Amino acid sequence: MDALKEELKFRGEQALDQVDQRGGLVEFHKWFLLRNVPRGLSWLHTLGFCLLIVFANQAITGSILAMHYEPGADTAYESIQRIMFDHDFGWLVRGMHKWGASLMVVLMFLHMAASFMMGAYKYPRELTWITGVLILVTTLAMGLTGYLLVWDQRAFWASVVAINLNGTAPFLGPYIAEFLRGGATYTSDIIPRFYGLHMLLIPGALMGLIGLHMYLVTRLGVTPAPWKTDDPANDPEAWS
Length: 240
Ligand code: HEM
Prior knowledge:
By secondary structure, the chain is mainly α. The protein has 10 helices and no strands.
């Protein structure tokens, strides 16, 4: 039995070595995870990771919902009723997606406020902040496009209000409103359009932006709290 265990361990390591030689997994893992962090980090520094978890929750529950949701004027509302009442744990998956969306927005504002308080928007992390702002706008667009998909009165009129508000923006406003409506007036064509945006285009953009954000966080490291910058242990020179 022990010999079999040894053999399996050896074979497993050999397979990992082969992948590592080609993909550089160990090097990437060391670069991404094994980093110095400043002394005196607080719970406020965990908000970004919480957001990653909530984002993963949205992606997983959203994919499950997409297997049962039917985007169409006559089918959308009924398919959601079926998800809620006919499918096992459908209510749970939908609830996790719906409440996860609100939680993500709340956490994002908290993370933004914490980063602002730490002065993390200053040199050299301006780009991290800018990618964060783009993530914020993209996430709000996820919220807007997702809200309509329920296709009840509240969803429809909330979307009408949001699109009309967009339409009042100078220069680009009317074009954005027409694009979102899919024409000059509101028709049921809006459902597949919002579904495509909500399922493919915006999450794709969001994933790319989060990847970039994480790359910058890894490259630049985390900002020490303002009341900890005088700590000699937080001098980057002392780390090398
Ligand atoms: C899905 C949304 C987001 C995810 C998953 C995310 C993830 C993260 C993670 C894991 C960190 C490192 C740990 C930490 O300091 O919390 C971080 C840092 C940072 N994030 Fe985000 N973030 C998101 C949205 C935002 C937004 C909306 C902003 C601001 C507009 C922002 C600005 C920053 C900045 C400036 C840092 C550097 C913090 C430091 O150096 O201490 N992030 N983010």
